[in-house]
Give the backbone structure.
Amino acid sequence: MQDKGIFNLSRRGMLAGSAASVAVSQGTIASAQASQASSSPPARMAVNLTVNGKPHRLELDTRMTLLDTLREHLQLTGSKKGCDHGQCGACTVMVNGERVNSCLSLAVMHEGDEVTTIEGLGSPDDLHPMQAAFVKHDGYQCGYCTPGQICSAVATLEEIRKGIPSHVTEILTGRMRPTNMEMRERMSGNICRCGAYSNIVDAMTDVARG
Amino acid sequence: MRSFTYERAATPADAARAVASHPNAKFIAGGTNLLDLMKLEIETPAHLIDVGQLGLDRIEKAGDGIRIGTLVSNTALSAHERVREDYPVLTRAIQAGASGQLRNKATTGGNLLQRTRCIYFYDTNMPCNKRAPGSGCAAIGGISRQLGVIGTSDACIATYPGDMAVAMRVLDAAVETIRPDGTMRSIPIADFHRLWGDTPHIETVLEPGELITHVYLPKPLGGKQFYAKVRDRRSYAFALVSVAAVIQPDGTGWVAFGGVAPKPWRVPEADAMLPHGAKAVVDRAFADARPTEDNAFKIPLARRTLAGVLADAKA
Amino acid sequence: MKFEEPAGQNLFDRAKIVGKSTPRIDGPLKVSGRAPYAYERHDVAPNQAYGWIVGSAIAKGRITAMNLADARRAPGVLGIVAATEHKPVGTSRFNHAPLFGGTEIAHYHQAIAVVVAETFEQARAAAGLIRTEYADGEGSFDLAKVAPGAPLASEKLPDYNRLGDFQAAFASAPVTVDQRYTTPDEAHAMMEPFATIAAWEGDALTIWTSNQMVAWSKRALASILGMPADKIRVDSPYVGGGFGGKLFIRADAVMAALAAKAVNRPVKLAMQRPLMFNNSTHRPATIQRVRLGAGRDGRITAIAHENWSGNITGEDGENATLQTPKLYTGANRLLENRTAQLDLPEGNAMRAPGEAPGHMALEVAMDELAEALGMDPVELRIVNDAKGNLPGEPEMKISDRNLERCLRTGAERFGWSARKAAPAQMREGRKLVGLGVAAGYRAAPTQKSAARVSLGADGTIAVETDMTDIGTGSYTIIAQTAAEAMGVPLNRVRVDLGDSLSPVSAGSGGQWGAASSTAGVYAACVNLRRMIGEKLGFDGDAATFANGHATLGEQSHALSDAGALSATGEMEFGAFQKEYDIGTYAAHFAEVAVDAYTGETSIRRMLSVCDAGRIINPLSARSQVIGAMVMAAGATLTEDLHVDKRFGYFANHDLASYEVPVHADIPSQECIFLDTLDPMISPLKAKGVGELGICGPGAAIANAVYNATGIRMRDYPLTLDKYLDRLPAIA
């Protein structure tokens, strides 16, 4: 084993160490802010938000993310939790028409917002054109990232239509087009470990062409 | 995530009052970085003040430049017509970072305050002087490929991980703030992020409770503007090295580097070397570099990346 | 039903549904967010509480104390099951590392507690209040350091491991390659984390979980929890990716079961993403040495492949030599596989275990040999294709092998002739452009597989089996098989998967799922056809089933005339298969562009030409192959679990720092299936492709990078820091 001696000292400084083995403690080096852990009941707040056209008034733990509100409270489990840290995009929903990572947003921050989830885009018997294109082009495999991919795909085409530039846009002041590279770049916040990327862009191309 | 109370502030003054009356309060706007860290108990505020409704979400002409409200989203800022035309390096930098979803939520002020992505900072089992002052730095002697090569210290070798601020650094932006006592100030971006020395937990010059209200961009610099970001995968990754540059037809210009230091790295004397080529610039800008074995490649990478930019500028 | 001889002409040779591109029958549910994954099953048990797993802060040593008092007092907490208060759970033959219990710590993020609370937020917050003290032990974490002393892996050594006189042949070969390659530890990083809802009814346990192998896992969980297997139900109808990572019972199922018992309520939990990389299994790193000796005509005379990897038990490492006896001829051979003991988390199967990293070495070595010979890499592979018989196994027959056709078809379709043999000759502005090729081999095993097929009174067909669909398309190919065999349209077939109450299938693993499970469904259909015949008074074996009718001579009946019937069937695979090497074959091509300034590599095109017998559903099989190509791209260019050798863990344990490919990395991909049939595999003559697709594309990319730059890299992933100093000089 390589030397980790410098940490032994700093860790031992906080803890009772023994001569034979180094004591390491978990929980003591978590945070710079040494705040008192609260044992008081969690703070709760009311929030009004509309999900897929349906208004809700909810009384929530302030810590509840928009994603967990959808999945656990409203039992709309189409939005997925892949990482809970904004690193995968499986939780993508649209808030007031813009795609966001619902895992990195507190529900209480969405007072008055309109949320659209995969369930709001279409149902198995009445698929949104993007959902239908994913089926046609096999734009998925395990299906877990799929709702996020589809929400993102719908929003991506809208962002291109609105002329929002991207990392691969050559002329920033020109008209945006739904090219293969534009779509790939803009979809990069949605990871698909099954690797359906090529098919997803085919599905999006279909929809973009109308 | 620890329990916290939450309030929405209606005005900057409200926000200031609120923060003054809570010892462990934090502002939240987009939340994309803060919530990530709160879930891991790296950040543990007892009170959150949502500043999202302060109305500071406009981009306005101000003298020869523009004033950007702190709540302007990354997407909106990068897509703004004036920014695209007059400050394209900023559009390029923002669009090189994160993902579409994150850019829709992330705000201008919040992005300036984005904390490091050092993997040891993110693992609360590991020593980290930034997260837990005095506990040591696991990155030194550890996995440091992604980390800083200059401006670092024996206490911490993390980097400021963002892209937007690197462009703002080359544009000589100013960060405008309001303090809890209601006084306002303008901080040159060069001074905004600290070289933290032995206090790596203090990353900016902001005082407790001080709120960013705007970022001011001075008169456009013209020239050709570039943001070259080098990373392992082709998108949705943090920079190994990034280069923000404004190059004039005569070969003079301004250049800042990202992914290499606790702050967007710019050395004015290195700007002056631009007509002499990438090697001269990087030799000067990184003269005091102290890389690790794992990340020493960042210095030749910075040189090669800038050389590519200069070649593109000539093309 | 027993598959005892090669399949002759049968109904699948006249198929109308099997073999046709078919959109997934589970597609509308998946794209509309209605397919319920493990954590999402609010309806299966009332009053579900939330669990949160706590992982060890050290890699090796023991827990000296756990202070649980603050956590137990925290709001909403229903209970805590902690390692210090629980004896170690049992083991199963599928797990190497301890899953839970006792104070010994074997690897970083080993589960040491589960906190159960009324809400997710409360469980997470309470977990943060647990204080654990450890005595830090010493461990071995550096493969390169321990590899030289690693013993030969214990598995039985087939004859072909040593053949002829390698040393002498290699020494006298006019053209040789002798190189060392390394591949890093890799993570499955499936998008759905481990997740389980557990509920007890008396002494019976149900887990709704995410698992590839339902029957294995039922048995393993019984052994781990020390209870009878018949008291356990495992249900896993939708699996959000597995790639081998969900072959086994993992801590989520164990902790959920223990927690549900402790709080006397159903408990749901998902493993937090930051724990997924060290708590789970991973693909172990390898060090490989490949030596090739050839005559000037390109014929290989000597071939040696040595492999070193490590694992927590010192056994079952990543055997990267597996494909080497199968691909190329050569009379003098040496294969050695060694496994060292390491105290890193458990290494276990990840998509094409062994072969995936094996091809990344062997197929680069072949490229190096082609260059040394001045021979085209496609031709070199064709010249040495072991198509007649397998070296060292002369008694072994080859079932159906068309590697040469893969290579020739691919070369033509990819425009291989545009490649410049000398490297670093193609430049487009800043970009250095290159093409690469690799061959691929993956075995096509089979496993016993059963299903129940039922005829409804309305003439619809229902299939039930514990087979899983992990994105592989099992739902659809099983429906196709049943529709074909029963002569009904696809939309008249319902498929229920993943429930241990259903007949035991092959499960999803080892690329055996498609071939085996469809054969099992076919066996059940044959039994149902007989049953229908008996009911209606004709010979079900002789009748034709089509258009919802069974017809024999003048006699024709609507299936609904038979009323509701149900038949179970199982396909067993006979010993005759052992006489054959039944494999799948591929040729992979890639074009890359490397930035001459920064060294950033972009993949421009990828093509795989696959030979895997009948392709039951070309649409989803193609997705399997292109998906595997994506995973190969990640393994080649970015994926790397960085071992912190001081603390003994994978330091980059989230999806931001472990970089799997994103959309921007992956261009349009092509996949061509050769129109072949393998009568040795099953009545459907169809072999799997899910692992074949990752056997070779990485080497094709690496060879393309070499062709573009003239820089040969042998340490994966090929990140730019490893070759920046060898790129063209800049001003």
